[in-house]
Amino acid sequence: MVTGALAGALIGAAAGYLFFTDAGRSIRNRIEPAVEDLRREFGRFQKTIEKVGEMANDGLRVVDEFNAARAQSSFPDPGTSH
């Protein structure tokens, strides 16, 4: 409980410093572009992951279609002799 109170006090002090002092505003102004770049990169990463998921779904669909077509095929089983 004491650890939680100390952590809360430290976070509150840091937030107060960053939001209510001139030095804190200066730090925020320097950090803000980096945070915005990081947010943009995470957005791009999320879109990449979504595309990979779509490709995987398309691949599974193609495999399912192939297997369904193969099951309906009129060609003899390759294990059968002629």
Please, could you describe this protein's structure?
The model has no long low-confidence stretch (mean pLDDT 90). α1 (2-20) crosses α2. The longest helix is centred in the middle third of the chain and has 51 residues, at 22-72. The termini are far apart. The chain is elongated and about 80 Å long. It is built from 2 helices and no strands. By secondary structure, it is mainly alpha-helical.
The gyration radius over C-alpha positions equals 29 Å
Strand-residue proportion:
under 5%
Largest sheet: none
**pLDDT < 50 stretches:** none
Structural class by sheet pairing and helices: mainly alpha
- Cα end-to-end separation: 81 Å
Helix-residue proportion: over 70%
What general outline do the C-alpha atoms trace?
elongated
Number of helices: 2
Strand tally: 0
List the helices and strands in order.
HH
Question: What is this structure, in a nutshell?
Answer:
The protein has 82 residues and is mainly alpha-helical. Helices cover 85% and strands 0% of the residues.
SSE topology:
Blueprint: H1 2-20, H2 22-72
Helix pairs in contact: 1-2
Which key phrases capture this entry?
mainly alpha, 82 residues
